[in-house]
Write a structure and sequence with these properties.
four-stranded antiparallel sheet; 130 residues; mainly beta
Length: 130
């Protein structure tokens, strides 16, 4: 992300809507919204973000009376270029989102999850290797 100093950076997850308010959770770098049927949207802040949050609304979504969208936020971009990494998770199992390791090096982000490592090389056209 390249921006002037002081800007807020936000990375949003998937919006959920239902007739009843979703169950909301926030803390330890993760925010989530879960419908009664188990469909869960979550965002986990992995690098660069300073917190998470939930945007909620009533009568604002065509798919249900109540809606919620989790997000990760950085409250003060340092200026210039900085790397922000988050995990956006949508699941019907109601399980917690995974917690991959995230290492940011010069020009790449290396994510480790269970038995798999994914490297994303940053640049004009990002590339992924496993």
């Amino acid at each position: 992300m390249t921006a002037p100093a002081g800007h807020h950076v936000r990375d949003g997850g998937h919006a959920l809507a239902a007739e009843t308010p979703p169950e909301l959770r926030q803390g330890d770098g993760v925010a989530s919204a879960r419908r009664a049927d188990g469909l869960t949207s979550a965002v986990r802040a992995l690098h660069g973000f300073t917190g998470t949050g939930l945007a909620t609304a009533e009568h604002a979504n065509a798919f249900g009376r109540h809606s919620a969208t989790p997000y990760a936020v950085a409250t003060g971009h340092p200026g210039g270029t900085a790397v922000y990494v988050s995990l956006v998770h949508l699941s019907g199992t109601g399980e917690e989102p995974p917690t991959p390791s995230a290492e940011v090096t010069d020009g790449a982000v290396v994510l480790g999850l269970k038995d798999e490592t994914v490297t994303v090389r940053l640049g004009p056209v990002p590339a992924r290797t496993r």
